[in-house]
Amino acid sequence: MPSSISADNIKAWWIWGYWCSPLMYAQNAIAVNEFLGHSWRMVVDPTDSNDTLGVQVLKSRGIFVDPNWYWIGVGALLGYIMLFNVLFIVFLDLLDPLGKGQNVVSEEELMEKHVNRTGENVELLLLGNDSENSPSNGGGEITGADTRERGMALPFTPLSITFDNIRYSVDMPQEMKDKGITEDRLVLLKGVSGAFRPGVLTALMGVSGAGKTTLMDVLAGRKTGGYIEGDINISGYPKNQETFARIAGYCEQNDIHSPHVTVYESLVYSAWLRLSPDVDSEARQMFVEQVMELVELTSLRGALVGLPGVNGLSTEQRKRLTIAVELVANPSIIFMDEPTSGLDARAAAIVMRAVRNTVDTGRTVVCTIHQPSIDIFEAFDELFLMKRGGEEIYVGPLGHNSCHLIDYFEGIQGVKKIKDGYNPATWMLEVTTLAQEDALGLNFAEVYMNSDLYRRNKALISELSTPPPGSTDLYFSKQYAQSFFTQCVACLWKQHKSYWRNPSYTATRIFFTTVIALIFGTIFLNLGQKVGKRQDLFNSLGSMYAAVIFIGIQNGQCVQPIVDVERTVFYREKAAGMYSALPYAFAQVFIEIPHVFLQTIIYGLIVYSLIGLDWAFMKFFWYMFFMFFTFLYFTFYGMMAVAMTPNSDIAAIVATAFYAVWNIFAGFLVPRSVSVL
């Protein structure tokens, strides 16, 4: 069986590696088991040697011919298995993580801790601070800044969104058909109607399965499958889904961002791609600064975003960054999916203050919310409440201390009164369950449709569905705000920032490339100049084979976690209408080229010179040329494997399978004349 280098040709300073390799024992045991068998016992040339053909093959490759090596191999492999498991347990028990997860602490929080520790006057500490005009992060009161008076650098058109008799259904799942259900479609929204207006903060609530997130996704155009019926209008004009992202923002619950860029760079990048080309760089940067102040991120402008739960921003800070990333697009309508989920009371209050500030600019803001505290619930102006099955049961104002909501439900015969100090949000969900409907013998959706509140809402929908006199439909000739070239430049700019600040990938890859080059070069030292025997030719060919396959596979494996993290960001940014897939792919591919080129230069020069291959210019050029493109296609294959699979774990499995196939059919392990199918 061909291998990279014969044991007899390994240099003395590397022979320890031969004896320490588990693969050596496995290969020797398998080879001895095969070539000392009956099929290989013929003597080819008795005049030359009495060795059997099998023994001659083993000796030519420097493999031991003692039959005991079969048992030696078995024992060595069992020993390595035990050793690795023991070391696995020991290292888990003794070693700490290389880095501890840390959250970025803002300047305001540092000052608050300093005051609590020393008792100094906080006003003296605030003097001269750059963020003195920003509200403190330490409080829990949810009040909006007076953004109307100070104004924003970029104007926007306040827009309302109305929807009438929205029905959404999907094909009936097969498992439900197997249970005897005969309908072809499963209806998730049943004729839902409502209106969201500028300057009004609306809470979209309901028990699990009520369809609140489904409704918001339908309105935002995030549902790519299923069947949608009904009318959706933007300030009286039919909604154009192709360009809707130009006037709307969508804050996802998961807070997905590139980890290796700063807060400021994240906002600049979003504004660069989503604002109109008519907005110059100076106005764009001024607007970014105002948005950072609006959501209280100014003190964190230079902080790296980091990975959730690992490093960088805290959960609450990431929530505010998510809001800011959408705000810098200067949208008229913003959808927020559970902006306070996973936060404690203090952090939720900070996020809701940022949401309140956003509403006070005159934008239309809709939030899905799940079991909010009293303070969070009271921060909303209106409530859109849904019941399980996709029907609305209350659409209207909350009032002071939720008085309008409480009066409405307490006015329904049989509904129990709310206790003093009880959370109205919790109370309304408790009294509107399906079990309560059965107990009371009523349907809250029918009660709502027969109420004066419903009739007022239908009148409001009718009013807002008619374009105001003198208004014009917002028209965009292009789906994306920026040209294809600008999209490419912006994506490449962010990828450059991300790679530059990720030395664990870029610098480590170069370091290990250098180390591996030195190892390979010294293992195959000067073998390129030895051509006296057939084994010398095999050694020279093996050096080229090992040089290509080892670094190539390493590149393909190392790039996959990087691409996997950025892919989730790509899905969010593409859905937001920032760019098409091609500019992103261009940037992801192009940024790898200089890194792979540097890797090729380092690796090629070291290995080529130490092996002692022919220094003719053209031979060296073609060696480097093919090495460079081989490293590239391995790297790009690793990226492609991530793109075509659900996650990096499956991508690694798929990629490894193809690496094995490529290895077998490369023409080295199995010659071409043998591998013809």
TrEMBL record:
Residues 161-413 form the ABC transporter domain. GO terms for molecular function: ABC-type transporter activity; ATP binding; ATP hydrolysis activity. It is found in: Membrane. Keywords: ATP-binding, Membrane, Nucleotide-binding, Repeat, Transmembrane, Transmembrane helix, Transport. GO terms for cellular component: membrane. InterPro entries: AAA+_ATPase, ABC2_TM, ABC_transporter-like_ATP-bd, ABCG_PDR_2, P-loop_NTPase, PDR_assoc. It is a multi-pass membrane protein. The chain crosses the membrane at residues 69-92, 510-528, 585-608, 620-644, 650-670. The keyword Membrane applies. Belongs to the ABC transporter superfamily. ABCG family. PDR (TC 3.A.1.205) subfamily. May be a general defense protein. This is ABC transporter domain-containing protein. It comes from Aegilops tauschii subsp. strangulata.
